[in-house]
Structure formats: C-alpha cells, structure tokens
Amino acid sequence: MIKQMLAVGVLSFLLTHQIVAQCVKGNCQNGYGTFKYQSGAAYQGNFKDGQIHGQGILYFSNGDKYIGEWENRYREGKGKLTFHNGDIYQGNFVRNEFNGHGVIEFANGDEFDGNFLDGQFQGKGTMVYANEDKYIGEWKNNLRHGVGKLILSNGDIQEGNWEKDKYQEEEQYPIADAEISDKNLRDCNETYCEQGRGIYNYPDGAEYIGSFENGKPAGHGTCYYASGDRYVGYWQNHGPNGEGVYTYKASGRSIAAIWRDGEAIRPLETLTAGTMGEEVAVEETDEVKIWSVVVGVSTYEHMPALRFTDDDAYRFYAFLKSPEGGALANDQIKLLIDEDATRNNILAALQETLLKADENDVIVFYYSGHGLEGSFIPVDYDGFNNRVLHDEIKQVFEKSRAKHKIIFADACYSGSLLAMKGLVTSTIEKYYASFRAAKGGLAFFTSSQGQEISLEDGGLRQGIFTHFLIRGLNGEADANQDKIVTIQEIAAFVSKEVRSYTAKVQTPVLTGNYDTNMPVAVIR
User: Fold this and answer.
1) Whether 43 contacts 57, CB under 8 Å
2) Does residue 415 sit in the same domain as residue 331?
3) In this structure, are 336 and 484 located in the same domain?
4) Are 22 and 161 found together in one domain?
C-alpha cells in the first residue's frame, strides 16, 4: 500500500521538471490548448499566463491519467488520478498531493474512504479490504493508529486502540469512550495519556478534547479557545492539521479548510457529495410550469441561531403561491423549515421536485440560512459533516431539463417576504407568457460576494438582502414599468439598495448564463 502511495512523488516530479515541450493545438498561453512534453506526456485543457490552470487532463508517459482542477501547474482542488496499475484516487488535491477527503480504490480490491494529509491516510477513515474485512477508525502515515474497530469477514470484532497497524490487546480504549461525557474523560495535564481520548488545557486558556498519541493531543478533536472560538477537526503539533472547521464566536463565521500547522492552506470545498437518487419521471406538458424548493433554517446546534430565516422561507413560499409568484400548485413546491431541512431532505427535495420539469418549465431554489464557502448549512450540520455543497445543487440544476433556472441564496442570514392575496387569471397568464418569450438559462443571485457576510437587521426584523428582494419582486424593481420584473431588474434594484443600506459592506452578486429578460415576478 505504501509503495502505491509513494507513486504520487514521482508524478509530482514529472510535473515540476518540465523540459523541452511544445503547444501543438489551441492557445497554451491564455485559453484552451494541447501541450506535449518531451517525456511523452500530454496535457489538454485550460491555461493562464502560460501555466496549466483551470480544468484539464494530463496523460502521463507511464500510462497514468489525471483529470480535474489545476492551479499554476499543480493539481489543486477536485480531481481523479488513475494509475496505470489500476489504482484510482478521487478527492481533494493540494500542491499535487492527496489532501482532505478522498477515496482510493486499489487494483487488489481494497478501498479506502477518509482523510488524507500530504498523500497519506491521516485521521479518520474506513478501509474495506478485498477479503471483506473492514476497519473503521483513526490512521497515521497510512497505518491504523489510534481508536478503531476491525470487523472481520467471519464476524469477529477487534475494537479499541491501535498502534502502528497493530491491535493493542493489553490496554484498550474502546470507541465507546468517544461517546462518553467530556467530564468523564482523563485529565491529560495530570495523567500521561499514551493513547485514547482525553482533555488537555493549554497555558493560554485553550482546552483540547479529543484523541492523544504518545502523550500529546493528536488526531480528531475539538479545541475551545479562551476567546470563545472553536475548532473541530484534525489536530497535531498543538494546532489544526488536516481537515477541520474553525468558528469565530464574535461573528459566527466558520472557515472549513485543510490546515497545516494552524494555517488554512486551502478552503475545504469538497466533502462526500450527495449522489443522484432514482430517476424522476419528467411531467411532459405544453404549458409552462414553475417548480420550486424553499428552504429556511434558523435553529442550529453547532452554529449561532438566526432570527428570521423560518419566517423568510414561509413568506417566499407564500409569494410563489400568489399570482405575482406564479400561483404554484401544492405538488410543484416543496417547503423545508428547520428540523425538516436536513442535508438528505434538501437534496431529495431538489431531485424529486425540480427534475419533474420539462423543456418549457421554470425551476426556482430559495435558501436562507448559514453558509460556508462552497456550501449551504442544513439543520443537521454538526460543525464538520452534512454540508450541502454548491456542486451538489449545480448537479441537480444541470440535470434538469427546465428552460429557466433561478437560485436565490441569502447565504448567511435571511429576511422577510410579504404574503400575497387573491388570484387574478390575467396576471398569471401574462407572467407565464413572458417565460415563453425569454431564451432561458441559469441565474444564481446571492446575497454577498467573496468573503462578505450577509447581514440581518433588527429594525427591519429581517435579512437585508431578502427584504429588498421581496420589495423588488413586488414591483419596486420594475424599472421600465411593463408590469414584469426581470432577473436583470431585480439584480440592479437589490444590489443598489443593499449596498446603500449597508454602506457598501454587503454587495449582492448575479452570476450565470441567462437571458436578462428572464421574468421573476409579475405586477398586478
């Protein structure tokens, strides 16, 4: 196994010691092209400033192949590396190495699913062996090390502490220890904690609760800082090392990243992505239909509570049920609030509702709640697991056959929507006719850009972004006064009002490939 993992170093050498080579097709400076190396390797994909950068495929001269993301000639981000011997790795890369969550399928039938650090199994992971044995637990430098459980194919179980791939029979710290109350854990300032779990208090007031190795805090754990901040993830050398989430008490903002010696070296953009479920039957009709999923989460166990998100979702739901929002039938809209808004429920609702749309239809996703980079945070987020990745949502939207695709995301805090009353047939007909006239596409309207935090306001008693979103949808954004609010009009109105209200602290962003005349509301 170790020899197989060392092959990564050879691949890194091939990339970083590029000799005489040439561009044989396309734009290898800034664009898309094909580049061949003297070694026989070939790259096909995106370039920036003469460097491999973006999405691309590298065919190695030894028969290996990498497909995925690149940054300044390094494998960086999500990717898949297929070795010529049949091994396959899929997951996170940092500077050419496996870092973060990944899955490697070995040609001999073994499969590892877990955390990597600099190309090695490090932290929690599960190995399913070809002989049907299964190990669940902690790893260090590719070896079973720490608390773990081995389930043999004959049903026997070895559960407890492991050291350098060997099960320790004399002194065991069962996995059950990880579930006991913190107050019952060993004080590792007073007692030498060779292995297992315990508590360690630092001179600066920080408290670590988690795994120990050779008397030091190491492995998976939680550190509570004197400032009130909290880190949950992999710990080594008295600081964050590996995959983890750091949460600031003052702002409630969380950073999910791969860490090295306390420094976030790369945002954690990929956890285990949701898979598409069973095929959903498309409802083929000649008429235009709107399909929507509305999510609002206010009560979190591992994040600061939000004040208005549940109200926001209910009011946006009411807007979609009104003539101005399309008067959606019950079977065309799914509402998930608080305890119902789990990761699995959100992904299931997106697939089961939005994939019913045919080529004439419109799909709308509204989310209000906490967000981390690259993901939305459902109610069952535990500080580390169960994020809903943006990529998972994009997967559903890409699969949908709908002509128009719209996402409204108040990705940190939420606001209020005004309930609508009554049905006016002519108003609804005008709204759906405007969808037939527009060319379609995907529009993604988010409440803030980059690292900005989306704000809520006690005076408004709602999120600032959603407050102006609903005002715009109810008519204030209708700049040309044709009684139809387009995606371009709502974006211009909300951006202007939010930037003005927050003194330019928050800037909404509209992205995607869409017709600027795509309608989002009709005015009676």
Assistant:
1) yes
2) yes
3) yes
4) yes
Per DSSP, 473 falls in state: I
Q: Are residues 67 and 205 in the same domain?
A: no
Total residues found in the chain within this entry: 524
The number of beta carbons lying within 10 Å of the beta carbon of residue 494 is: 27
Helix-helix angle 309-321:464-471, to 10 degrees: 20
Nearest residue to 294 via CA among 361, 376, 359? 376
Question: Strand ranges (DSSP E) for 338-478?
Answer: 362-368, 371-372, 375-376, 388-389, 404-410, 441-446, 456-457, 462-463
Residue 461's alpha-carbon distances to 366, 405, 457, in angstroms, are: 19, 29, 6
Say how many domains are in the chain.
3
Record the tokens describing residue 81, joined without a space.
Answer: 């590396």
pLDDT, mean of residues 396-402? 89
8 Å CB contact between 410 and 367: yes
What is the distance of C-alpha 439 from the center of its chain?
30
Same-domain pairing of 182 and 159: no
Identify which has the larger pLDDT, 522 or 145. 145
Q: In terms of pLDDT, which residue wins out, 299 or 151? A: 151
- Which amino acid, one-letter code, is at 420? M
| Residue showing tokens 């791969």 | 258
pLDDT exceeds 90 at position 136: yes
Tell me how many degrees the CA angle 164-169-171 measures, rounded to the nearest 5.
Answer: 90
Question: Is there a single domain that holds both residue 111 and residue 23?
Answer: yes
CB 519 within 8 A of CB 435: yes
Distance CA 82, CA 35 (A): 20
pLDDT in tens, 459-497: 555 567 777 888 888 889 888 888 888 888 988 998 888
Q: Whole-structure pTM over 0.85, yes or no?
A: no
Q: What is the DSSP string of 89-151?
A: EEEEEETTEEEEEEEEE-TTS-EEEEEEETTEEEEEEEEE-TTS-EEEEEEETTEEEEEEEEE
Is 43 a member of any domain? yes
- Tokens 């954690």 found at: 268
- Please write the tens of the pLDDT for every residue from 311-327: 777 778 888 888 778 88
pLDDT for res 434: 54
What's the rounded Cα separation, in Å, for the pair 390 and 415? 21
22-36, 157-171, 311-325, 429-443: which has the minimum mean pLDDT? 429-443
Reported in sequence order, the residue ranges of 369-523 that DSSP labels E, i.e. its strands, are 371-372, 375-376, 388-389, 404-410, 441-446, 456-457, 462-463, 484-486, 509-514, 519-522
How far CA 481 is from CA of 233, 476, 489, 497, 519, in Å, comes to 53, 9, 11, 18, 13
Strands 157-163 and 97-105: unpaired
Beginning with the edge strand found earlier in the chain, give each strand of the sheet holding 388-389 in spatial order. 371-372, 375-376, 388-389
Domain, as residue range, for 57: 2-165
Give the Cα separation of 136 and 304 in Å (integer).
32
